[in-house]
Automatic annotation (TrEMBL):
Protein encoded by which gene: atoB
Source organism of the structure: Streptomyces brasiliensis
PANTHER family documented for this protein: ACETYL-COA C-ACYLTRANSFERASE, BLR7806 PROTEIN
Thiolase C-terminal domain residues: 257-379
Thiolase N-terminal domain mapped to chain residues: 5-249
Protein name per its UniProtKB record: Acetyl-CoA acetyltransferase
Keyword annotations: Acyltransferase, Transferase
MF (Gene Ontology): acyltransferase activity, transferring groups other than amino-acyl groups
Similarity section: Belongs to the thiolase-like superfamily. Thiolase family.
Family matches, as InterPro entries: Thiolase (IPR002155), Thiolase-like (IPR016039), Thiolase_C (IPR020617), Thiolase_CS (IPR020613), Thiolase_N (IPR020616)
Family annotation (PROSITE patterns): THIOLASE_2 (PS00737)
Catalytic residues of the enzyme: C89, H336, C366
Gene3D superfamilies (alphabetical): 3.40.47.10
Any matching Pfam family: Thiolase_N
């Protein structure tokens, strides 16, 4: 079995809802990173075997296989195929996994895994109510027989996790402040310079709040009446795109490429769809078991900050040292452009491993429906 190498990874800044990226069509948003990725790596774009794209709200401007549309919008070769997938928030992390499968199986040599979500253009949850008269996605008799008529959504899931793991506001506010502080430091130290490209005149992630305090955070109303989480303790709605180039050993040699890392271990699991967001715990456990690694051997973790309680419960169960988690900020500061976040986290992880000289990185994220991916990469 051949190795699947990560050759390069790039992303747009994350734009705030209604911010600097909101006027861009999502095909141009993704097309911009695809074009830079191809140009920067020096590969012949015609040699790419497939483009696998994550996108959650595949409707409106993001419908009809946006991966293909973005590739063509970037002026890239027509004969290169593309596909768009949906594993909810982990869509583009799953794209990296699928790309590694094709390469490790010996069927493909160059694959781009990418993702996009223009949440200013196609709002959160818009695909769940298309006006077709079939009702809420979590419906139907079989669903009702199994789960009853309880409300099922991520906001409730986050609060249920805080309650189950005994996580209080103080702990969550500390994590949120750390997220913004780490992101601000990363900006100031130029840690994002290699991974971010300028798009639409925007060069920096727009969601970082340098003046956050616990008092300001505590003053915000809860998302749910009586709930634990408010907007400061949740990922920010955002626009963005990211892309990762993966290559086989054969392609590395043929095209004179210099890999940054290799895909070491991949996992995906199902978990409780009512709690929804606990999947990173078993996914990480399985990834560590399969890789033969312990949490202490992981130099850097990227755990998506869908809600503060998600990361804190995961860290407690896994035994992850928070000083090695989201060291350049997480989604509470940088935003969570759903379909792009998996590739965004991978982009940040691989470049930070290179910058810091770490060996192993682990990425995980919770996903709608009670799912989660976990991926271990090794710097080479």
């Amino acid at each position: 079995m051949t190795e699947a190498y990560i050759v390069d990874a790039v992303r747009t800044p994350t734009g705030r809802r209604g911010g600097g990226l909101s006027s861009l069509h999502p095909t141009d948003l993704l097309g911009s990173v695809l074009k830079v990725l191809v140009d920067r790596s020096g590969i012949d774009p015609g040699a790419v075997d497939d483009v696998i794209t994550g996108c959650v709200a595949q409707m409106g401007a993001q419908a009809w296989n946006i991966g293909r549309n973005a590739w063509l919008s970037a002026g890239l070769p027509e004969h290169v195929p593309a596909v768009t997938i949906d594993r909810q928030c982990g869509s583009s992390q799953q794209a990296v996994t699928f790309a590694s499968y094709g390469i490790k199986a010996g069927e493909q040599d160059l694959v781009i895994a990418c993702g996009v979500e223009a949440m200013s253009t196609v709002p959160l949850n818009s695909s769940g109510d298309p006006g077709l008269g079939f009702g809420y996605p979590f419906g139907g008799q079989g669903w009702a027989d199994r789960f009853g008529d309880q409300e099922i959504h991520q906001f409730r899931g986050g609060d249920l996790i805080a309650e189950k793991w005994g996580i209080g506001h103080e702990e969550m506010f500390d994590l949120a402040l750390r997220s913004h502080g780490n992101a601000a430091r990363a900006q100031d130290e130029g840690r994002f310079d290699r991974e971010i490209i300028e798009v639409g005149g925007v060069r920096r992630d727009e969601g970082v709040r340098r003046d956050s305090t616990k008092e300001k955070m505590a003053g915000l109303a809860p998302i749910r009446p009586g709930g634990m989480h408010n907007a400061a303790l949740a990922s920010q709605i955002a626009d963005g795109a990211a892309a990762v180039l993966l290559a086989s050993e054969r392609a590395v040699e043929r095209y004179g490429l210099t890999p940054l890392a290799r895909v070491h271990t991949t996992t995906v699991v199902g978990a409780d769809p009512v709690l929804i967001l606990t999947g990173p715990i078993p996914a990480t456990g399985r990834a560590l078991e399969r890789s033969g690694l312990t949490p202490d051997q992981i130099d850097l973790f990227e755990c998506n900050e869908a809600f503060a309680a998600v990361v804190l419960a995961w860290a407690k169960e896994i035994g992850a040292d928070l000083s090695r988690v989201n060291v350049n900020g997480g989604a509470m500061a940088l935003g969570h452009p759903l379909g792009a976040s998996g590739a965004r986290l991978m982009t940040t992880l691989v470049h930070e491993l290179v910058r810091s000289g770490g060996r192993y990185g682990l990425q995980t994220m919770c996903e709608g429906g009670g799912l989660a991916n976990a991926t271990v990469i090794e710097r080479v």
